[in-house]
Amino acid sequence: MGALETYSRYVNDDWLQTLAPLGEVPVFIRAGGDRLHDSQGDEWFDFIGHYGAMLFGHHHPALQQALIAALADELPIGAPLGITAHGATLAQQLVEKLALGDGWNNWTLTTGAEAVEGALKIALTVTGRQKILARAGAFHGLSSLTLALNNMPFWRQGYEALVPDDGVTFFDDPQDLPALLASGEYAAVIIEPLQAIAGGRRLDAAQAGAIRLACTNTGTLFIVDEIFTGLGRCGDYSAMQALGWAIRPDIILLAKTLTGGLMPSAQLLVKQPFFHAFTGRPGCAKLIASTFSGNNLGHQVALASLQLLTDTLETPGLMARHDHFSSRLQALAVRYPRLLQGVSSLGALHFLHFTTPDAAQLSWHYLHANKILTTLCAHQPATLKLIPSLFQSDEANDALYNVLDYVCEEENEHVR
């Protein structure tokens, strides 16, 4: 029995049927850098990077060695009735890299959804309020509580009863927030500085400043979800820094890139007064936790990842390579405006905005047929999303560019 047949029988045949229209369902057996290798001996260029987790590419040597060293040192995985030193070191370094100043705590969890849920629990508890404001089009996770922050009904079809529908109000335009917050009934505003699944919509510095002021004036916590955008993806330690925000929120959520995809690890950074107001209650010091939260192996890899990120961001010209790649993609939009409306980029994150969902879908299929892995934006189906490694090779970039150029040229002839 082959791998595909075994997978179909024992794992998830519906996933194979979902992939079937792409024409080929590869069985990946090895990965390295910006490439995946399948069981047929073919090489695939990866512009998905495990949905953003592989910031440094697959199996970066520095992160591999950190994990191997942690195992060799026989570090305790957790410390149920004690602490581990690496967690404290990681917390200190994150606060410093994000330029937060004094007065912050960091708590390590396992997944991004756990971090989001932890942030909401803190906000509801310390404010005594029972409602949340969330921006439409966002994606904060697939657990029942995080799905309540998603305004797209598709994500919860069939189990609506598990997702509370009366505690979250959605807004689209940040200018509407001051009026909404004036009611004094909201515990928190949660927002992504850049909505990747919604086609790269950004929250600029002025908008962030207005939200900060409105939250301060109404006693509302400001939660920023940097799970996808943080720690290098946008060319800085956070998208907030990359976008030039002059303010700081009350809670910051991190995950994905921090451990290079090798270990599940998420971080919940909270201003100390709010953190202590939650954990200082009797019996609640570790109420936000799960079996593998605070994993010491993850701490060790995260520390190596932060050092690697620092070295990378300080490498002259490295981010300029991503800017150059973005410029090449933008040139395609200039040449083929009937198909490609434009390209928006921030660091190692690129969005190709096609004129129609069909044009985006066609390009996605062509890229897959040429063994280039990309993904479409679920909340903006006319947009193709590229999530490359910081070290994405010229060979990978050229291959993707050439396929897109070919598709646009062919389709441009048809629409004349």
UniProtKB/TrEMBL annotation:
Its cofactor is pyridoxal 5'-phosphate. Signal peptide: none annotated. The keyword Transferase applies. This is Aspartate aminotransferase family protein. One of its GO terms (molecular function) is identical protein binding. Keywords: Aminotransferase, Pyridoxal phosphate, Transferase. It holds the Pfam family Aminotran_3. The keyword Transferase applies. It comes from Chimaeribacter arupi. InterPro entries: Aminotrans_3, Aminotrans_3_PPA_site, Class-III_PLP-dep_AT, PyrdxlP-dep_Trfase, PyrdxlP-dep_Trfase_major, PyrdxlP-dep_Trfase_small. Belongs to the class-III pyridoxal-phosphate-dependent aminotransferase family.
